[in-house]
Specification:
256 residues; alpha/beta; Rossmann fold; seven-stranded mixed β-sheet; two-stranded antiparallel sheet; 9 helices; 9 strands; 44% helix; globular
Length: 256
């Protein structure tokens, strides 16, 4: 495993895994990654996490506090795992918007929900998390699961999600984080950089995209840093819950 090739940030560059790339290039490169893996994304999630990603998402859904008739936004919602749960919580009188910057992922999400008969209370939006095309104070809950680390300007995305929340609304960020369980870090590193690219090659025909995904996890802010970023965006009551020894964390913050 190697580290970042250029660990010194500059104002006109941003991390893309362990690379530094021009700010305007990252979104296109991330889009190419997800164009490549979209058709096998759900299968790979099950294989990579041994199915545990379903428990992480179930925990997020258990914390939304959503009631029938309310509105939720699933940012970078991809193939719709979270949206399925949110749609059940808001019921037929509520609304969930599934948004993603990647058209191919959004297409798979829309097809999946239609196949499951989830219609009537779900809408779809091709949208950049940094510039969400929704009115101020529109949603009771905003979720983003395993998407924030792929955003070019994370502070702008947090500010955008804050803007569209109603007063009293909650943001929930489910993301890979920093292992805290003793001895877990080296095992996790070995699995991420030795096994995941090979698995990506065998199942999705794309080792490089899964190498990027492993690198992007290592470049993502740790639990306390993300809390600080959320507070800087205006969120209050910010807290996090470590899952699976800190491999994943659920961050929560409110707009009051």
């Amino acid at each position: 495993m190697t580290g970042p090739v250029d660990p010194t940030p500059t104002p006109d560059t941003v991390d893309f895994g362990y690379e530094r790339v021009a700010l305007e290039d990252k979104a296109n490169r991330v889009r190419a990654v997800f164009d490549s893996v979209a058709s096998r994304y759900d299968v790979m999630n099950d294989l990579m996490s041994f199915g545990v990603h379903r428990l992480w998402k179930r925990f997020l859904l258990s914390q939304t506090g959503l009631r029938p008739g309310q509105k939720a936004l699933d940012v970078a919602g991809g193939t719709g795992d979270i949206t399925v749960g949110l749609s059940k919580q808001v019921g037929s009188s509520g609304l969930v918007v599934l948004s993603d910057i990647n058209a191919e992922m959004l297409r798979h999400g829309r097809d999946r929900l239609l196949d499951q008969g989830i219609v009537g209370n779900v809408e779809f939006a091709l949208a950049n998390a940094e510039r969400l095309p929704f009115a101020d104070r529109s949603f009771d809950c905003v979720t983003i699961a395993f998407g924030l680390r792929n955003v070019t300007d994370k502070a702008a995305a947090l500010a955008s999600m804050y803007r569209v929340l109603k007063p009293g609304g909650q943001l929930m960020v489910l993301e890979f984080s920093k292992p805290i369980a003793p001895g877990l870090g080296p095992i996790y590193d070995s699995y991420s950089f030795s096994v995941l690219p090979k698995l990506g090659q065998m199942v999705a025909g794309d080792a490089n995209s899964y190498r990027y995904l492993a690198e992007s996890i290592r470049m993502f802010p740790d639990q306390l840093t993300l809390e600080t970023m959320m507070r800087a965006a205006g969120f209050e009551g910010v807290r996090h819950h470590n899952l699976t020894g800190g491999i994943v964390a659920l961050h929560r913050g409110w707009r009051y």
